[in-house]
Amino acid sequence: MAKKGGWGLGIAAALVAVGALAFFTMHRAPTPARPAKPSKAAPVPEARTATVALGSYGSVVHRNGQELALQIRPLAVVEGPRQAELPRLNGPQEQERIGNVFLRFPALADLASSQQLQQQLALEIETSLNAELQAEHSPWRIRQLHLRPSLGPVPAGD
Hints:
Elements: H1 2-26, E1 47-53, E2 57-63, E3 66-72, E4 75-81, H2 92-104, H3 115-135, E5 141-146, E6 149-153
Antiparallel strand pairs: 1-4, 2-3, 3-6, 4-5
């Protein structure tokens, strides 16, 4: 009788041993990766930033029953390669782009008093000018645009 139970126990022990062997051979600890040889990276050209005045733009707006003159004098902070000439951002084509974005802006009357509206208009102008720079294959990009709006009385005409 003892022999009957021994065979079953022996087979079970053999199966456990085979299973353990298979488990440990299939789940080896990962071998540490060899450190990659440092590659020589291409030298990064030094970038520079500069501030470029973009002209002056104005419109008459109606606010609180008054006619007022709104004027912006945008400044662009541009970034590009140190050896490249500054981009031309105040030519007739750029002035037309800026003027069109400025005059199409729906909330001109509140522009001088709202930081959020200033940021929105600045982003629209920046996007338009960056698209132009990219189309011209310029290495320069506008990184920031400041509008500097002012609101005052409409100048008297001659």
